[in-house]
Design goal:
The protein is built from three helices and no strands. It has 99 residues and is mainly alpha-helical. The radius of gyration is 21 Å and the shape is elongated.
Length: 99
């Protein structure tokens, strides 16, 4: 496995572990406090739709949710990368000051 593959695997493991840690800290609760209310409203809407309409709406919501998850992961990775780069810059500056 080349270096970039190992780095990618490391990043995936790191992000997965961090997400699990945050999830456990929140006791598995959703971050959105209105989630339950929205779910009830959505169920009322679904009851009024035909099976075909329900399927279309469900598929749309699933696809949108997946894209949002991908986008959130992208931003998380960029923030993590930027933080690591900042750490390196600060370390170089500290090393230069202590020489």
């Amino acid at each position: 496995m080349e270096l970039t593959g190992k780095m990618e695997e490391f990043m995936n493991d790191l992000i997965g572990k961090r997400m699990e840690q945050v999830y456990q800290e929140k006791d598995g609760q959703q971050y959105d406090p209105f989630n339950e209310k929205l779910e009830m409203k959505l169920q009322k809407i679904f009851q009024k739709l035909s099976d075909k309409q329900r399927t279309i709406l469900f598929d749309y919501m699933t696809e949108t949710s997946n894209k949002c998850s991908d986008l959130n992961e992208f931003y998380y990775r960029m923030g993590l990368r930027d933080g690591l780069m900042l750490k390196e810059v600060i370390q170089v500056m500290l090393d230069a000051l202590t020489v």
